[in-house]
Amino acid sequence: MSANCENVPAKKHPPCGKRCHDHDCQVELCLQATKSFHAIRLIQLGARASLVCQVTGLEKTVIHRLYRQLRGYPSPSGQLPFTDTWYRENDLRMLQATLIWNLYQRFLKTKRSHARTLIDVYESYAELVDQPLLDLSRTVFVPQMITMQLWHERVCRCCGTVFLESIVGRRWTCPGCRLYHRYRCVQCGTRLEFKPTGRRRKLCHHCRDTRKHPTTANRFPEPSLPPVETSCE
After folding, report:
1. Which residues contact 117 (CB under 8 A, 6 or more apart)?
2. What pTM did the predictor assign?
3. What is the model's pLDDT at position 11?
4. How would you classify the pairing of strands 151-155 and 162-166?
5. Are 155 and 161 within 8 A, CB to CB?
């Protein structure tokens, strides 16, 4: 079965052919087939059986049997994410979580089923990012953090972009700006020199000297280098 279901085509409408959303079809067998399609695609994207049951609403015995037939081994056990510690440890993870939230809001407007929306979000996220850091389980957990009111949207004071932040967080700059200024001067944007040890620098040498000695820095500006002559020979 794994060879035949390797690539399940996306369905715009239910298998019965009616022009309605996949979760609004009144044909019971059609609705069951649509959930099975979604379950197969979720398993292919890396979801465990517990997550597939939660998203599609199918019985555990059906999902576990389907998982074994597709993968050739039983679904691994373990808890789903229940805290945001893993996300907040890394700015790049929070940056990709913000991207997932933006994609989720966009696909919600299609008014498709919850399973189909999550599939579309994760497939788009994997196409947009070169190295995805969030698997499907952590992707599903991002909208849940908003629903549980543990995260909310903030506007970055540097670039004006809307980003996700914990309700107890005190940062008002987006993860993208934090990653950028980690290697740039926060005042002039000049690339900072590599410092292997000690506290991370935030200012370049020129801005630091200007802050320490503002009068001297204005009186004796740095000399400009003469232009380099180039030959066209």
Report:
1. 104, 107, 108, 110
2. 0.76
3. 53
4. antiparallel
5. yes
